[in-house]
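Design request, tokens follow.
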């Protein structure tokens, strides 16, 4: 019983970390990262299609992304989708490929992004603490129903707390990495 709860708890906490990493992937940190475009959908023959399914995206240098559509006729649609997005980038196209040049981040923008990174990190920690609470409630319920003993309850809660501490520490490390990435010039 306790092992099952512990495994479910760890799985949920790992998903929270994974979600945090994908959120951070969408934050523009001054260098070009193809994952920034993951959330962009292009209206392609009347169907919203993810940009990365319509084109090859590469980063020839740290401040530029090159988008090479599989179908050259979709360049206009891709350009419109990028302009509509909240990325604040101006695409330039030569008829075959689209270039996205990433401007240098200002100090103020870096600080704003750092605050955003911390906010997402704190939301992830809250999610982890909520998972801990749910798991502890599950263990208490099992103890009330005499499925586990009081000692097993305490041991289980201790293991859940250790998981919570480990994952909170991981979140802190991820936050520090992302802030360092944003702040580097």
């Amino acid at each position: 019983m306790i092992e099952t709860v512990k495994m479910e708890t760890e799985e949920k906490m790992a998903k929270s970390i994974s979600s945090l990493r994908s959120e951070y992937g969408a934050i523009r940190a001054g260098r070009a990262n193809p994952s920034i475009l993951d959330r962009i959908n292009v209206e392609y023959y009347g169907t919203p299609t993810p940009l990365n399914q319509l084109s090859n995206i590469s980063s020839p240098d740290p401040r530029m992304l090159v988008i090479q559509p599989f179908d050259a006729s979709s360049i206009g649609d891709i350009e419109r989708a990028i302009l509509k997005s909240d990325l604040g980038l101006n695409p330039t196209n030569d008829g075959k490929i689209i270039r996205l040049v990433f401007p240098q981040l200002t100090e103020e923008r870096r600080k704003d992004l750092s605050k955003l990174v911390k906010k997402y990190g704190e939301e992830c920690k809250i999610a982890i603490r909520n998972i801990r609470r749910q798991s502890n409630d599950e263990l208490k319920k099992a103890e009330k129903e005499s499925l586990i003993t009081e000692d097993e309850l305490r041991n289980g809660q201790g293991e859940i707390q250790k998981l919570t501490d480990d994952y909170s520490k991981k979140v802190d490390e991820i936050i520090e990495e992302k802030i360092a990435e944003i702040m580097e010039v």
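Comment from the thread starter after seeing the answer: thanks! DSSP finds five helices and six strands in the chain.
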